[in-house]
Specification:
Blueprint: H1 6-32, H2 34-39, H3 41-78, H4 87-125, H5 128-134, H6 139-178, H7 182-192, H8 195-222, H9 228-259
Helix pairs in contact: 3-4, 3-6, 4-6, 4-7, 4-8, 4-9, 6-8, 8-9
Amino acid sequence: MSWWRPSDVGYAVRRKLDDMGYAARLFLRLVQLAGPSFRRFSLVRDQVHFLGNHSLAIIVVSGLFVGFVLGLQGYYILVDFGSDQALGQMVTLSLVRELGPVVAALLFAGRAGTSLTAEIGLMKAGEQLSAMEMMAVDPISRILAPRFWGGVIAMPLLAAVFSAVGVMGGWLVGVVMIGVDPGAFWSQMQGGVDVWQDVGNGVIKSIVFGFTVTFVALLQGYEAQATPEGVSSATTRTVVMASLAVLGLDFILTAMMFTI
């Protein structure tokens, strides 16, 4: 007796394709609602404050300690080659190219993404979204779109704060605690970091991660089962799927940026 039948496989594949098609249509709908969302900018502004300001504490603290670790580890690596004066360049490139966008996106998924999923899921469980539809109010336009664009705006800002605080953390460890020459720290950083190729690539990554994490969070909340267990499962899926998507997209974007 076989454990599976071809019809079961076909049904599973068809369901997965249906889910992917629905997600693609919802994403395109949210993108198309950019104009109406920004015409009611107060809704987007409130979401930027909610998602960004409430995530700021964990971003700042995490960025500071990541900078501490980069400064300490980088110094002991570079000093073996007599290049400890390049500590500022190494810390800054590590942050603006990779760690700033990636770690900030992971923290954003864990803090703001779960909050979005739980909020939308609870609204669905409380039949608030159904009530809006009964009043001829589109919940995607009124509820999802402002949160989507608020997350897209907040994510690059948080990544920039993470990188800036991380650089200051590396400076504190390298210059204040270890004794690296401060002039060399800043001059090497300014001479070795290109605004367009290094900082610009990091900004592009953070924008892509903002689209990805926010959309995953909204999709999981909007499609959550209207039960406490369903909302809990959707919140867990948000963290897992958004984190994996960020790491996978980081590899793809890095490969594209360094080969084009």
